[in-house]
Amino acid sequence: MPELPEVETIKNLLKPQLVNRKIIRVDILREKTILGDPNVFKSSLEGEMFLDVSRIGKYLIFHLTNEIVFISHLRMEGKYFEYHKDEPSTKHARVIFYLDDDRKIIYDDSRCFGIMKLSNEKSYKNEEEISKLGPEPFDIKDVDYLIKKTKKSALPIKSVLLDQTIMTGLGNIYVDETLFRSKVHPLRKVNSITKDEWKKILDDSILVLNNSIKAGGSTIRSYHPGKGIDGNFQTELLCYGHKGEKCPECGHVFHFIKVGGRGTTFCPMCQVEKKDKLVIGVTGRMAAGKSALLEYVKSLGYPIISSDDIVEELYQSNGDIYQLISEKLNISFERNYVDKAVLREHLIKHPKDKSKLEKIVHPLVRKYINKWVNVQHGGLIFVEVPLLYESKMEEDFDFIIALDVNLDIQKERLKKRNESSYHDLLIINRNNAFDDYSHLVDFLINNNKDKEDLYRQIDKVINTLQHHLN
Ligand SMILES: [Zn+2]
């Protein structure tokens, strides 16, 4: 979806193509693209000349003779193309403006979310779409306006910056970029943002938009007729789109969450949000020391829970899990609980049922964990989930610690457990996608030495995490 800088670029591209050109004919190929009567739109524009093209927020405003104005919003996929009149039009052409110099301007829209609306010089600013827009960052002289507008709201700052009625111009991409530069966590409650932080956010949003508009300027220089005027250009984004990569400021891996349904990338170390309670996921390779970590943090007084224990408890409980496993996997257990030996036998015979089993177990474990987390008072809380990424639970945790171990030491440790489980575990371990996600974790602990070394590494992580607590 084009954002303000792209629309600004499109405006700058279109303007020299259109100004002082007369519209000979308008073909409306999709009537619903026009808000209002398409016939009136057509007859009002035909014979008029373009005087100017301007922009308000993400709306393009076309100014014509006789005070006629039409507004255009590109929404998801709207694009303008400039062709010779005899060239075949684009595949998704919706409205075509034939000009008096043998050219045609095509409005193309594959998804058909874009709109055009007829108006006039006197009233276009009062059109519903335009009048509800807040000022652009460039036009806000005093952040008191933003503070006043938002002081009663407890919404996340990200949602507020996306609200075009408060401030217009920042879409998903540029909100993430702005908050990253301002070092403000996207979930910070807006009424907790200080005046200095607001000043920084406003300055950074102007900087981010201006950088992007400048990058669009190079598109204008390379523009040639017949090319789509869609304003797409490479602009240097530090944060947005870098999910799973490392923060250029501090080297920590970017986090990705949903805020109000919108994908959001941020750096948890640069954009610190202090909380009363931090939920820490513990995962990692088999025999890398997850249990040792849990025992150690428990000895320090932190609440812990382990998914394996939860599964154990659920299996014994004769609850939903017993019912679901019996039905979906068609197993009859002799007693009123999930007998692990019977289950294992079944899975050896029906290996495909493993994913069915996971689909039953993972959501129930997740529910159990969330319930347990909710009743904890505060501070650091540790949850061990061996298949944390496989069960897509990343977003349940504020931070994730993973334990790694080199293969030889891992084998040694597994041998020390009993022989049969050693074999089983190696089979399971092959399916453990640790290498796929180890670069995504917040803290990777290599547990190849002794316990003292492990504890030292854990202490260091805890020390860092303490800075994120109120
Ligand atoms: Zn960072």
Features:
470 residues, alpha/beta, N-terminal domain of MutM-like DNA repair proteins, Rossmann fold, 3 domains, five-stranded mixed beta sheet, 16 helices, 39% helix, binds zinc ion
Small-molecule binders here are: zinc ion
Radius of gyration over C-alpha positions, nearest whole angstrom: 29 Å
- Superfamily (CATH H level) name of the largest domain: P-loop containing nucleotide triphosphate hydrolases
Shape call: elongated
Largest sheet: 5 strands, antiparallel
Task: Report the CATH C-level class of the largest domain.
Answer: Alpha Beta
Number of domains: 3
The span between the termini is 38 Å
**Order of strands across the biggest sheet?**
1-7-8-6-10
Oligomer category: single chain
Number of helices: 16
Beta-strand proportion: 15-25%
DSSP, total strands: 17
CATH architecture of the largest domain: 3-Layer(aba) Sandwich
Q: Could you walk me through the main structural features you see in this protein, from its secondary elements to its overall organization?
A:
- With 470 residues, the protein is of the alpha/beta class.
- Helix content is 39%, strand content 19%.
- The longest helix has 28 residues, at 195-222.
- It is elongated, with a radius of gyration of 29 Å.
- The protein folds into three domains: 4-130, MutM-like, N-terminal (N-terminal domain of MutM-like DNA repair proteins, Alpha-Beta Barrel); 137-222 and 236-266, Helicase, Ruva Protein, domain 3; 277-466, P-loop containing nucleotide triphosphate hydrolases (Rossmann fold), CATH 3.40.50.
- The strands form four sheets. The chain has a five-stranded antiparallel beta sheet with strand order 1-7-8-6-10. Strands 2-9-5-4-3 form a five-stranded mixed beta sheet, covered by helices on one side.
